[in-house]
Amino acid sequence: MEPSRALYTLLGSATLPLLPLRLWWRGRREPRYRERIGERFGRYRGSITGPVYWIHAVSVGETRAAVPLVQRLKATYPEAAIVLTHMTATGRETAETLFGDRVIRAWLPYDVPFAIRSFYAHFRPAAGFLLETELWPNLIAGAGSANVPLYLVNARLSERSARGYARFRSLTRPMLQRLSGVAAQSAADAARLAELGAPEAVVTGNLKFDVTIPSSALELGAEFRLRFGAMRPIWVAASTRDGEETLLLDALARRGLPDNPLLVLVPRHPQRFATVAELLRARGVPFVRRSDANAPVPADIGVVLGDSMGEMAAYYAAADVAFVGGSLLPLGGQNLIESLAVGTPVLIGPHTFNFSEATAGAIESGAALRVAHADALIAALIALFADPGRRQAMGLAARAFHAMHRGAADRLWEWLAPQLAARAVQRVGNLSRRAPG
Asked: How far apart are CA 109 and CA 139, in angstroms?
């Protein structure tokens, strides 16, 4: 073990006694954090026969992006089990909704050697796939020790993150060099990863463009539209992060929107639903919660609090304009692709380093507008609500931009399939040689 990884492991091991307490604390608002805590330490139930393919998708966005990969693995290796690991409760819940019993859901263990060894010994994956930027030194080193080819797919690395990894090159470079391959979202992502020591990457695009919006979501969006007010202007503030709701409400108080529009406010994290509800009450803002009733929203209600999971596409489909959160504050922005997919014009703040390529392309295509701050957001909303023709043009541009960027799943599979097939042949040969003559 390299000295830098040994130090990393020592520091990580020192925190282990505190981690069950942290999970229990988080479980106050998200009870699933209290489920199967042993998995976090490499203790898994049951057994699996036959080949296993493992995908790690840390949270909701990565889990949705994994859908095309799961589908191709299932179609190509129908006898194989697919194990999907997560770090967040919302990611695990999303996997349950999307896949049901077609995949095995599990927590990824903490990145300490004994838990990692136990994970690989239990599942014995034929190959593993880390989505986006899930880079854990012991996890990746353990794959090599267990002879598991490990691929970083749909990989992205912002300039900010690259600078952070570069400060720990003695830890980062050996970790990245151990990967069996890298499929990057963009040439810029590939270059940043290569600079840090990753294998030369193939550029396949962003899998999130290939996620199909189900007809059930569009139908729910149409239902929302009727419930919210078919003739009422509607805008959604989607995936807002801590502090952004205050910025939006302050800007609205300074300069209200004409024609009584409805704001559908959807916090990014479910543990903040109650916090945002209390914020609205404290300010005397009339609101209803999505979870409370399915009745029409009265005209004197200015806000619907979207306190539901898995309905973001429906919220987008119901709206005239979408603001995508995480971007007014320096948090990197959230995923704007779902809004583009349903043809809803997008407003986005100045901080979008998590989705820099998609955001820049959407702005250039005319599907999105960047605003500098919350007051500029309100001004942009006023202009768009007053100009139906411009909203329609942005919506058409959004659909066209989304369609143009589909195909990442096909490109990824074209690159992966021969490597997995070769590994499968090699595995069969190894088993044959071990069998008694």
From this structure: 9
Render pLDDT for 368-395 as a digit per residue (tens, 0 to 9). Answer: 999 999 999 999 999 999 999 999 999 9
CB-side exposure of 338: number of CA atoms within 13 Å? 27
Q: Is 174 exposed, middle or buried (0-12, 13-18, 19+ CB in 10 A)?
A: middle
For the stretch 312-347, pLDDT in tens is 999 999 999 999 999 999 999 999 999 999 999 999
3-state secondary structure of 428: helix
E strand spans, 137-218: 150-155, 181-184, 202-203
Domain residue limits at 153: 3-205+407-434
Same domain, 376 and 229: yes
How are beta strands 321-324 and 368-370 bridged, if at all?
unpaired
Tens digit of each residue's pLDDT (9 = 90 or more) over 6-56: 999 999 999 999 999 999 998 888 888 999 999 999 999 988 888 999 999
Q: What is the mean pLDDT of residues 104-128?
A: 96
Angle in degrees, CA 277, 281, 286, rounded to 5? 95
Strand partners, 95: none
Residue 311, amino acid: E
d(CA 120, CA 270): 32
User: Residue 221: which of 338, 323, 337, 311 has the closest Cα?
Assistant: 311
Catalytic residue among 62, 134, 244, 245: 62
CA distances from 345 to 122, 146, 259, 356 (A): 47, 48, 19, 17
CATH number, domain of 223, equals 3.40.50.2000
What is the number of structural domains in the chain?
A: 2
62 has catalytic annotation: yes
pLDDT at 432 over 80: no
